[in-house]
Amino acid sequence: MVDKFVGTWKMISSENFDDYMKALGVGFATRQVGNRTKPNFIMSVDDQGMICMKSQSAFKTTEVKFKLNEPFDETTADDRKTKSVVSLDNGKLIQKQSWDGKETSIEREISDGKLVAKCIMGDVVAVRTYVKE
């Protein structure tokens, strides 16, 4: 199921993230910090199937706990208050965030032993790649 995503992942590259943050409506100062930050992505699952996803950096740590396909409230690293849902589709972990009539998705998959996260907002796509620590 989601076991292949479990672990601590270190970011090795981030492409087009500034444009993605602009598309989300993130302000200039927050984008500057976001572009310099290389957070670790940490995922765990408890014995009740509750998934925990954590983004951890010196700047900020965010954490969400959820079950697959069950909507939950999320406060993102850039302080958006979203209604989010995460599903598993063809081996991809797909996170959809909705707020103020807008929607973005983050598609995470394992490719060649790396975790690849595609952040999609309209026609803007950022790709962030991680390796397991």
UniProtKB/TrEMBL annotation:
Keywords carried by this UniProt record: Retinol-binding, Transport, Vitamin A
Sequence similarity: Belongs to the calycin superfamily. Fatty-acid binding protein (FABP) family.
Cytosolic fatty-acid binding proteins domain boundaries: 7-24
Any one GO biological process: eye development
Keyword Thylakoid tagged: no
Protein's name according to its UniProt entry: Cellular retinoic acid-binding protein 1
Functional summary from the UniProt entry: Cytosolic CRABPs may regulate the access of retinoic acid to the nuclear retinoic acid receptors.
